[in-house]
Design brief:
The complex is a heterodimer of chains A (354) and B (794). With 354 residues, chain A is α+β, with helices and mostly antiparallel strands. Chain A has one domain: Nucleotidyltransferase, domain 5 (2-Layer Sandwich). Helix content of chain A is 37%, strand content 15%. In chain A, a hairpin with a 4-residue loop joins strand 5 and strand 6. In chain A, helix 3 packs antiparallel against helix 13 and helix 10 packs across helix 13. Chain B has 794 residues and is an alpha/beta fold. Chain B contains 29 helices and 32 strands. Chain B has a seven-stranded mixed beta sheet with strand order 1-11-18-17-14-16-15, with helices on both faces. Chain B has a seven-stranded parallel beta sheet with strand order 6-7-5-8-9-4-10, with helices on both faces. Chain B is globular, with a radius of gyration of 27 Å. Classes of the chains: A alpha+beta (354), B alpha/beta (794).
Chain lengths: 354, 794
């Protein structure tokens, strides 16, 4: 059933005798983001909040650059893993006004500092700041970061590989670990809809590189898929969490949708399958959230919920509310980081689950 | 060449009756017989339909050997004229619609070019659309039977059904390997097109799309399906294919026009039926008036059962068509009782058939009918569509179906290539049936109805453009293919926030899944399960959600294959009815209450001493009580109130409220204002579809005074949220009223007939026994005419 507002519009159209001269009546318009948005996805600020929103692109908040491929441009944002330090949650607060925010000290007990940082970012985005939107990582209070390798994990892959006993070590043995590719997608739904953000992690010369490829609108999805395909063709094997069932078939579907070729399957390590094999009897389930808490001993607070993500993206495309999309980048990067950090525990026969 | 029919679709069968004269004698014998309670029945009219010989045609180029072989194996040496023409046109790359009679070999005409293509061009694919899952299953058997006749063909064809019943693993394998896919428009709309990237192999290689039984795609359903086909063609173009459409239709007035509206391109019409027909006797049978004052007529069910039993005893394979499921069950029960007394095994050769039976049960009945093992079947219109059960010798229609086209379609189930056949209509004691019994010439002079659909209905278009944009962004060129209004509608969708323009295309920009919110049909396809609580809750049958509270309400007697089941509980939340076998001597009938409540008055205007308005209406209905009816005697033996939740439909309604002075004048003329209004309501339901481009059953009409204080006619769209029909009527009230007056004026009848004031179309009541109902009286034509004259000042 059509929405009431749409039915009213159609009814008006009928009453005008099917003749109207409104905008767009002669075909799709070619304009950019608009500010006269209507409620569609339910994620816009509550009615009554009449502070005007100045639309802006995500590139005005997150540092990065535009890649140009045969299918057009897409935006890329990149971080080094060691930059994340002990508090990956703080990284995104630095974006927008990097220098200013970098100077702000984050004491354990001072929530205010984080809020100030958020306010600066929001101010730069020209939008009201909502502290509830700010994600944080909350560590298990009974557990001290300094006593665990995975708190500020120096990912020592050679050692990890040496300790592996499971068949998957074959992947590392065969290819080494230098050319592995971690991948996690953010999409507009479970199937048959666009992918807009691909978070990847590659091993660079000295550090792990966390890269996020972003389609600034639906038309840039092809460039995103092309870039992921290119990265995959340069990698020896893929590491995902549930990627065998979701991320990879999803990409293939979208490539077929756009009549694009997609690389043949490369070796693929799905951490969900490994985690299930290892902890099925120990943990209530093997969702990434559960593993973060029970294995990495931390959880996210204020993280954007998976079901909200598609709406936030549609709203961004329609209205350019970039600051509301930043938590999605954060969420995606934390997912990739969690994958990276789960590797030691997964392959450590002595790993303890709490 | 009766060999064609016998070989492919019809096992050899000997009718126990060899001439029409013998059929006549049999009917006459029933007529003269003094039955129970001294009653006799009446044969009102006999129409002889002459025999028609086969006309063959030759193909422009011969068929490949494997196809010739399989046809020969089925006993087919030559094609009928219409088949040959259809094959030639398809081979030449035209879209084709085949509109010939029941059982004229329409399926073969579209199977041949497809099999030829699959054979000659490996990798190519054909998609078949059927209006029901049952039909797809049945046609799959026919196609498989055909393809298995030759090894090369068998290897070339991977056929299967793809619908809601297909298990997940089969779906995937079939997407990867199938090349003849049998599905339905609803599945195409919700399960295939939105996921087109998974079907890219299919769409890249799509050569033919078969659309079977297109006459069912009319009104709201047809308007949606026409757009689904536009979406299909757009996706096919995206993947680089441009399939040809092969359509088939029962006899309607406008098959070519309908096909072109559906496909959106010119379609060649093949309607010169070359299939042979034996002679047919068409009889009208009216149960005779009985009772002390001869005020009412006998039961049509009982009469139909007598005729059926007599035919079966003469070895005449017969089908009875009923309007409702309960009638099919009752006639079966009565006939079985009578046949069981004979102890000759004939009772075992009779079966009921209707929607709601489990698919495997239905398949078994179809099979037994096809094999000739069943001598009689009593069916709802579930068997009216082209399920291939072979041709039978006699068809008995209990009450006239809703349309002329349906009547011919059902009657057409009887009749083989050469043998004589019988069709009998047994009238109910309702005004329409009785009118036709008094005026048989009216029926035989009417041409079948036109099928109307409107792909550019703005509401339908808005829903469908949303679905299309979800599948692929809409370009200006795409929009043009959805008709002249499409760009406007798309811009409304964009203003509403569902679409977003980027680089000259409109993209879907919402978290909604539009196909999930758009139902192609007027009623939901939700189903209830009926389980036997006495047998570990084994599933007995299903029933659609709308009908469930009218069929399996608490304490109802649910009839299944003639047996009585007592309904213990109806669990609305779980959608389950718990029943148990209980032998009782009665059945039950629901008492329905339908109400229309006006929620808002969006607009009103004055028009010639009356008020016309448009608003949102809540139409609700419920089973408020039930009656216990004793079998055969039809005596009412109990009335029990029920308290069930109401079902409802929120839609748009128009109302028409004449002032008291207008009604007073009708009264002063000695006529009944209520009859005048009823007649006008019926006229408007007949006329508005012509202006609003919908099917009559797409509209509802109610006369009440509870909303406005005065009696008013309400017409509403039978679709959630409305589709603009009432709106159109509101805008065109003057034209409608003038047309109504012309219609009454020009109708040659004296007191009113189904062509003018007499034909209300109400929701098909699947659960009603029409023997008890009596129908709506035909209102006095003069009263309606007086009302209209006053209003229009004539």
């Amino acid at each position: 059933m059509l929405s009431r507002s749409l039915r009213d519009r159609i009814s008006g159209f009928i009453r005008e005798g099917f003749s109207r001269t409104g905008a767009g009546a002669s075909g799709p318009a070619t304009n950019g983001p608009e500010t006269n948005g209507h409620a569609t996805n339910g994620h816009h600020p509550p009615a009554g909040d009449d502070r005007s929103i100045i639309p802006c692109g995500i590139e005005e908040i997150l540092p990065g650059g535009v890649i140009q491929g045969p299918h057009g441009p897409a935006f890329v944002h990149e971080r080094l893993y060691t930059d994340l330090g002990e508090r990956p949650d703080l990284v995104f607060e630095r974006y927008g006004a990097l220098s200013a925010l970098d100077d702000i000290k984050h004491d354990e007990g001072s929530a205010q500092a984080g809020h100030d940082a958020g306010h600066v970012a929001a101010a730069l985005a020209g939008a009201p700041y909502d502290p509830a939107l700010e994600p944080r990582v909350v560590y298990d209070p009974e557990w001290s970061p300094s006593t665990s390798a995975s708190a500020a994990p120096a990912i020592d892959l050679p050692t990890i590989v040496a300790r592996m006993e499971w068949p998957e070590r074959g992947l590392f043995r065969r290819f080494g670990y230098r050319r592995m590719l971690f991948l996690d997608l953010e999409t507009c739904g479970l199937s048959a809809c666009p992918v807009f953000l691909a978070g990847v992690c590659l091993l660079g010369e000295k550090d792990l590189v966390l890269r996020q490829i972003f389609a600034r609108d639906y038309a840039e999805e092809r460039a995103l898929i092309h870039e992921v395909a290119r990265l995959m063709s340069e990698a020896d094997f893929l590491v995902t969490f549930n990627g065998k069932s979701f991320d990879l078939p999803f990409l293939r579907d979208r490539a077929a949708h756009h009549l694009m070729t997609f690389p043949a399957a490369i070796p693929h390590l799905d951490l969900l399958w490994l985690a299930r094999r290892r902890w099925r009897h120990t943990l209530p389930d093997c969702k990434l959230k559960t593993l973060e808490w029970r294995v990495l001993r931390r959880r996210r607070a204020g993280d954007v919920g998976g079901h909200e993500i598609p709406g936030l993206y549609h709203d961004y495309v329609q209205r350019g509310e970039a600051h509301r999309l930043v938590p999605v980048f954060h969420h995606n990067m934390l997912d990739v980081v969690a994958m990276v950090e789960l590797i030691p525990a997964l392959f450590d026969p002595d790993a303890v689950v709490y | 060449m009766s060999a064609q029919r016998q070989g492919l679709f019809e096992p050899p069968q000997r009718a126990g009756i060899a001439t029409l004269a013998e059929f006549e004698a049999l009917l006459a014998s029933l007529r003269s017989r003094r039955g129970e309670r001294g009653r006799s029945t009446e044969l009102v009219h006999l129409e002889h339909l002459p025999e028609r010989p086969a006309v063959y045609g030759d193909l422009a180029t011969p068929l490949p050997a494997p196809i010739r072989d399989v046809l020969a194996a089925q006993g087919i040496e030559r094609l009928y004229r219409h088949q040959a023409r259809a094959v030639d046109l398809a081979r030449a790359g035209s879209h084709v619609v085949i509109a010939t009679g029941t059982a004229s070999g329409k399926s073969l005409a579209y199977h041949i070019p497809i099999l030829e293509t699959l054979l000659r061009e490996p990798g190519s694919v054909a998609l078949y659309l059927f209006p029901t899952k049952a039909l797809a299953q049945d046609q799959l058997r026919g196609l498989t039977r055909l393809a298995e006749g030759a090894p090369r063909l068998r290897r070339a064809v991977t056929a299967g059904t793809y619908d809601g019943d297909t298990p997940g693993h089969t779906r995937r394998r079939f997407r990867e390997q199938g090349n003849a896919i049998l599905t339905n428009p609803d599945m195409l709309h919700q399960g295939i097109l939105p996921y087109h990237s998974r079907w890219s192999r299919i769409f890249s290689n799509l050569r033919y799309v078969v659309v079977d039984e297109v006459h069912t795609y009319r009104g709201i359903f047809g308007s949606h399906v026409a757009n689904v086909l536009r979406r299909l063609r757009r996706i096919a173009r995206h993947y680089g294919s441009d399939p040809r459409f092969l359509l088939s239709s029962a006899t309607i007035r406008n098959p070519g026009d309908l096909a072109e509206r559906l496909v959106g391109e010119p379609v060649a019409v093949v309607d010169d039926d070359g299939a042979p027909r034996g002679p047919k006797l068409f009889a009208f049978w009216n149960p005779r008036a009985e009772g002390p004052d001869a005020a009412s007529r006998g039961s049509a069910s009982v009469e139909a059962e007598r005729i059926l039993v007599s035919l079966m005893r003469r070895d005449v394979q017969s089908i009875v068509f009923t309007r409702s499921r309960v009638s099919a069950e009752l006639i079966y029960r009565y006939a079985r009782e009578r046949l069981e007394r004979d102890k000759d095994g004939l009772a075992e050769k009779l079966s009921p058939y209707r929607g709601g039976y489990l698919p495997e049960e239905r398949r078994a009945i179809e099979r037994r009918l096809f094999d000739g093992d069943l001598k009689g079947v009593i069916s709802t219109n579930a068997l009216e569509l082209g399920i291939d059960v072979g041709s039978l010798d006699a068809a008995i229609l209990v009450g006239f179906p809703n349309t002329i086209a349906s009547t011919w379609q059902q009657a057409g189930r009887a009749g083989r290539s050469r043998e004589p056949a019988l069709a009998v209509v047994v009238a109910y004691d309702d005004p329409i049936d009785q009118y036709l019994m008094r005026h048989p010439e009216y029926f035989f002079s009417q041409s079948p109805e036109s099928a109307v659909l409107d792909p550019e209905n703005p509401y339908v278009l808005a829903s469908q453009l949303a679905c299309a944009a979800y599948e692929l962004p809409l370009t200006a060129e795409d929009e043009a293919r959805f008709g002249a209004r499409a760009p406007h509608i798309a811009s409304l969708l964009e203003e509403d926030g569902a679409l977003k323009s980027l680089d000259g295309s409109r993209y879907w920009s919402s978290t909604d899944y539009p196909a999930g919110k758009v139902n192609l049909r007027t009623i939901s396809d939700d189903t209830f399960t009926i389980v036997d609580a006495g047998r570990n809750n084994a599933v007995l049958a299903t029933v659609d959600a709308i009908s469930a509270p009218e069929l399996v309400y608490p304490e109802a007697v649910y009839l299944h294959e003639g047996d009585t089941y007592f309904v213990r509980e109806l669990d609305q939340a779980q959608k389950v009815a718990y029943v148990e076998r209980r032998e009782v001597d009665y059945y039950t009938q629901p008492v329905l209450d339908t109400r229309l409540r006006l929620l808002d008055q969006r607009e009103t205007k004055r028009w010639n001493e009356s008020e016309v308005g448009l608003g949102t209406a809540d139409v609700s209905w419920a089973t408020v009580a039930f009656k216990k009816i004793r079998f055969r005697s039809l005596d009412a033996i109990g009335y029990h109130p029920l308290d069930l939740p109401r079902q409802n439909l929120e839609t748009v309604a128009l109302w028409f409220r004449p002032e008291e002075g207008v009604r007073a004048q009708v009264r002063i003329a000695g006529l009944n204002p209520h009859e005048a209004m009823s007649g006008l309501r019926n006229l408007l339901i007949t006329l508005l579809p012509l202006y609003a481009m919908c099917d009559r059953p797409d509209l509802g009409g109610i006369l009440n005074s509870s909303n406005l204080g005065d009696p008013a006619i309400f017409l509403y769209d039978r679709y959630p949220g409305g589709l603009g029909y009432a709106e159109r009527g509101y805008a065109l009230i003057e034209d409608l009223m003038r047309a109504a007056l012309v219609m009454v004026d020009e109708c040659p009848c004296e007191l009113g007939c189904p062509s003018c004031v007499g034909l209300p179309v109400l929701r098909p009541a699947q659960q009603q026994d029409y023997d008890l109902h009596g129908g709506w009286p035909i209102p006095n034509k003069e009263a309606t005419e007086a009302l209209l004259r006053r209003l229009l000042g004539r």
